[in-house]
Amino acid sequence: MATRIWIPLRSSAVLKCVLTGPLLLLGAAMGEAAETPKPGDRVLEAYIRQEALRLDGAYADDLASAGHWAQRRDEYRRQLLWMLGLWPLPERTPLQPVVTGAVEGDGFVIEKLHFQSRPGLYVTANLYRPKNAEGRLPAVLYGCGHANKGRDGNKTAYQPHGIWLATHGYICLMIDSLMLGEIAGIHHGTYRENRWWWHSRGYTPAGVECWNCIRALDYLETRPEVDPTRFAVTGRSGGGAYTAWVTAADDRVRAAIPVSGMSDLEDYVKPPVINGHCDCMFLYNTYQWPWTRILNLAAPRPLLFTNSDADTIFPMTGNERTIERLRKLYALLGKPEHVDAFVTPGPHKDVSPLRVAAFGWINRFLKGDTSPATEPDKYPTVEGKELWAFPGDLPKDEVNTKIDQLFVPRAEVAVPDTLRKLAALRKKLLTELRETTFRAWPEKLPTASLELGDQPLSGTIATESPLVAGYRYFPAPPPSLPEGGGRGRVHPIDKDRPSPSPLPRRERGAATTCWLLILNEGDMDETLPDWAAPIIGDDASVVLSPRGVGPTETTIKQPYYFRRAMPLLGRTMDSGRVWDILAFVHAVKRPRTIWKVAGKGQAGILGAYAALFDERIAEIVCVEPPATHDDGPYFLSVMRVLDIPDALGLLAPRPLTLRNASAKPFDKTAAYYRAAGSQATLKRN
User: Fold this and answer.
1) pLDDT at position 479, please?
2) Which of 12, 52, 62, 474 could form a disulfide with 265 if both were Cys (CB 3.0 to 4.6 A apart)?
3) Which of 2-16, 75-89, 104-118, 482-496 shows the lowest mean pLDDT across its residues?
């Protein structure tokens, strides 16, 4: 007996049926026993939740007026493409399509084919078409979810969709995803593989999936049996997300049905939700978007937003907020009948009600057929191996397995040859960094105030509510002590002692040096670091623990909740740490202080970036610095602007010391200093 569904167009439909089966959990750690939280876990989770609410609250900006939306839509699309790593748009290189065979069924044919969305980036696919058809037919692009079928590709898991569409007068192109296709690439770069350099490069597999969908539409346009004016896109789970990406990016899509593929920030940043999601589900939210804006870019084209009511990684709370916001925009644009929601009881699973809802929507808007859609109780199934696009060996020129290293172009910054050109380049690059990589920084530095005098002091200071940075201040030893006296001791802190006295009289009016020593994750903050002693001599110093370090240490374990949630808010832990350094320098009330900054490894580079944005930092020392942002610190898309040797070079002519940094990339830093005529202020040892 066929399942029959009617989809109302002005109110959400909830099909009353009973579904059984286990929940589909993508997160490896969702069922693990809870561990004792680290000191900073709760406050950082509160910060993430606060920022998600703030960004999602801006959805009303898109509802000012229809004219306002029309004026901004093209710029929003450009921003979307940029956040996917697709702006400027890549070249549309020849697709090189190859049909390698076909399988015939009852009333349908499945073609096995592949094309290249860019040279060597193979998209393996099956094209379902009616066995006998005349004229040009509407076409549906189907994006596949996370069904692991090994060498067969995940396209083989969704055969019912293609068969139904082909037997009802459609062409259906069903494409494998990057990770679960015949040529398996990587989706879980940050989820499992520790490829945090994806953040630095601005690479997300969501960009590859979006581009493959765009090029799939290009391929469909070349088919003589396809009507290129009638395209629909659908898919479930990961395929639901890809549906959202390509619909937002490409106006050739006339109707879209993202199935269990998108929520809002308020739900996404909850640990049980984001921990259940693959990296391909997210762009890097550089432009601080309310997440619904992605789907807003579909408007006013027909959009059916479908979900299951017991889906733990797409909770109904987020679904309900999303459809409510979509309805408001579609009404504003005069097309309220073009958006609707469909919900079926059950978990995250491909089931008949969801399929039939999509089929009905496609019929309505590609054929003008409003009759109820039905589907058979059982579909024929083709063995997965029979649907391989590559029946033999996989191509040796494939780049699928290394596309994360190639997809987003890295900036190539030419070293200027004069001081004037260096100043112009510095201004340009810092502007780009502030507009993209560090866009999420607050507009103003905090109002916190801290006075450092001649007594040791430790505590925390507010840097970005509700976050704090920890500090431990070591004053310069008094003149009565021998050189180096007292250096390296753990100074006791008396909480009952009154506020520290200002600088000793003998120092009044004279400039004094204070070193800011930046710590890395895992460093201890009780004493001066061993590497710091030969750098600071007898100067005063502050050991600074930015967010996630020392007193605000956070949990660092797979699936890396804090590190993965931050990019959804347009930032990383490391970009926030640079802000913490800037906020601390701004807060300290210490007259005529010469600030110098030092750090080991990634922390040294954090200090260098703080110096780029605050010229009060007069000198920088980096001990064993990484030579590229591939090795950290990790800032969103920073390598689309510059890399570490460039950033250090922009510090010229300020004194810069690179210790244990003989790597060839730093020769470029030296070239910047030569351009500034300040070779003597750069030291490498």
Assistant:
1) 66
2) 52
3) 2-16
pLDDT at 286 over 90: yes
CB atoms within 10 A of CB 222: 11
Overall residue count recorded for the chain in this entry:
685
Q: Measured between alpha carbons, how far is 85 from 201 in angstroms, rounded to an integer?
A: 9
How far apart are the C-alpha atoms of 182 and 150, rounded to whole Å? 7
Residues 166-177: b if buried by 16+ CB within 10 A, e if exposed: bbbbbbbbbbbb
pTM (2 decimals)? 0.92
Does position 542 have pLDDT exceeding 90, yes or no? Answer: yes
499 assigned to some structural domain:
no
CB 634 within 8 Å of CB 196: yes
Model confidence pLDDT, tens digit, residues 141-180: 999 999 999 999 999 999 999 999 999 999 999 999 999 9
Single-letter amino acid code for the residue at 454: D
Cβ within 8 Å of residue 82, ≥6 positions away: 286, 287, 436
Cα dist. 685→433, 469, 622, 664, 667 in Å?
29, 31, 11, 13, 13
Q: How far is CA 176 from the centre of its chain?
A: 22
Report pLDDT digits (tens) over 330-345. Answer: 999 999 999 999 999 9
Interatomic CA distance for residues 528 and 517, integer angstroms: 8
* Same domain membership, residue 654 and residue 616: yes
Nearest Cα residue to 324 out of 49, 60, 69, 16: 60
In a domain, 312, yes or no: yes
Q: Count CB neighbours of 613 within 10 A.
A: 16
Q: Give the DSSP per-residue string, 310-375.
A: T-TTS-HHHHHHHHHHHHHHHHHTT-GGGEEEEEESSSS---HHHHHHHHHHHIIIII---SPEEE
Domain limits for position 90:
3-28+55-405
Average pLDDT over residues 615-623: 98
pLDDT level of residue 536 (50, 70, 90 thresholds): very high
Both 535 and 680 in one domain: the answer is yes
Cβ atoms of 617 and 600 within 8 Å: the answer is no
For position 19, what pLDDT does the model report? 29
Mean pLDDT of the chain: 92
Residues 468 and 393 in one domain: no
Burial class (CB in 10 A: 0-12, 13-18, 19+), 422: buried
Under the banding of pLDDT at 50, 70 and 90, the label for residue 509 is low
Q: Does residue 196 contact residue 567 with C-beta atoms inside 8 Å?
A: no
Is the same domain home to 307 and 433?
Answer: no
**Residue 22 belongs to a domain:** yes
Give the Å distances, CA to CA, from 478 to 295, 503, 533.
64, 11, 17
Whether 494 shows a pLDDT value over 80: the answer reads no
CA dist 195 → 187, 284, 578, 594 (Å): 10, 15, 21, 38
Residues 349 and 423 in one domain: no
Is residue 481 a part of any domain in this protein? no
Residues 427 and 362 in one domain: no
Where residue 23 sits, what CATH number does that domain have? 3.40.50.1820
For the chain, the domain total comes to 2
Distance, in Å, from the CA atom of 606 to the CA atom of 672, rounded to the nearest integer, reads 19
Contacts of 150 (CB under 8 A, 6+ apart): none
Query: Strands 137-143, 13-14: parallel, antiparallel or unpaired by DSSP?
Result: unpaired
Structure-token pair, residue 7: 């989809």
Specify the pLDDT at position 31. Answer: 40
Strands, sheet with 339-344, edge to edge from the N-terminal-most edge strand: 13-14, 339-344, 303-308, 253-259, 226-236, 137-143, 171-175, 121-130, 108-118, 98-104
Residue 388 has pLDDT above 80, yes or no: yes
CA-based nearest residue to 408, from 670, 665, 641: 641
| Cβ partners under 8 Å of residue 635, min gap 6 | 199, 200, 437, 438, 572, 574, 575, 578, 609, 629
